[in-house]
Write the structure tokens for this entry.
Amino acid sequence: MNTSLMIMILGMALVTYVPQVLPSLIMEKIVLPKKVEKFLTMIPCTAMAALIFPGILSVDTAHREIGVFGGLIAAILAWKKVPVILCVIAAIALDVLLYMTVIPHG
């Protein structure tokens, strides 16, 4: 294997790994107020919602309601604390069902 390619792969691995490890090492020693901890735990959910929401509206621009219904069922199941994979499967199943029954195929 090419040496420069190997160095580049190792560099990318290091650049990916270090930002993940450093916060966990630093945060072990810092005691944060409960409100800050709650805020930090909500960041992944907020980021995920921000990434998913545009996709819900653009999944099929001719039939936006299909994406909205899929997102709605996933949100309801997530609110009921259903595992994420089941939320995704339920949303996909509903969207497929809607595509098969609502959209005319010609």
